Automatic annotation (TrEMBL):
Classification via InterPro entries: DUF1468
Keyword Membrane in annotation: yes
Name of protein: Tripartite tricarboxylate transporter TctB family protein
UniProt keyword annotations, A-Z: Membrane, Transmembrane, Transmembrane helix
Pfam families registered for this protein in UniProt: TctB
Top-level taxon of origin: Bacteria
Transmembrane segments: 12-30, 50-72, 147-166
Electron transport is among the record's keywords: no
Ranges for domain DUF1468: 13-175
Length: 175
């Protein structure tokens, strides 16, 4: 049971965060049109763009409530303040947190700087190459020329193949 207590604390916090995300999704979906005019005809509510995010938000709240209920039964709320204080004190030495922050920064750069300002294939190739270079290898192993060339080949080919599939088969233009 002792190994389950940290999981219950994580479940408690995560379920609350996901419930808040579900509420945000419902609020954002409520601002979308619910009656659609298309070709001079009024379409029914079940064809509206706000329906799918609303359903996802409701499901997120329901499933997160279930996780929260199990976390409360397991005592996940006990000692949460001490655990949070310890987590804040160890931010500087938490390598998993640093990796997560680096991943979020790379995705943010790709989305907000790369896409729209740089051609899709170039931005995607650079993003993939840098991401694989940073996260692919174990920290104690040095880079080899062969490994870097393999990553570069994957980084160049993946956006080309994905772009081709989306434009040719799905008829979805790439940014």
């Amino acid at each position: 049971m002792s190994s389950e207590k940290p999981l219950r604390k994580a479940d408690f916090v995560t379920s609350i965060v996901f419930m808040l995300l579900g509420i945000v999704m419902i609020v954002a979906a409520s601002r979308m049109p619910w009656i659609v005019q298309s070709g001079g005809l009024q379409q029914d509510w079940y064809l509206s763009p706000g329906l799918f995010p609303t359903v996802l938000g409701v499901l997120l709240i329901i499933f997160s409530s279930n996780v929260l209920m199990h976390a409360v039964r397991g005592g996940g709320y006990r000692g949460l303040g001490r655990a949070a204080a310890h987590g804040l004190r160890s931010v500087g030495s938490n390598h998993d947190l640093h990796r997560m922050a680096m991943a979020a920064a790379l995705v943010g750069l790709y989305v907000f700087v790369g896409i729209g300002r740089v051609e899709y294939h170039i931005a995607s190739s650079v993003f993939l190459f840098v991401t694989m270079l940073v996260f692919h290898r174990a920290p104690d192993r040095p880079f080899t020329v062969r490994a870097v060339l393999k990553l570069a080949l994957i980084a160049v080919l993946a956006p080309l193949v994905i772009g081709y599939i989306f434009t040719e088969f799905f008829q979805v233009p790439m940014p």
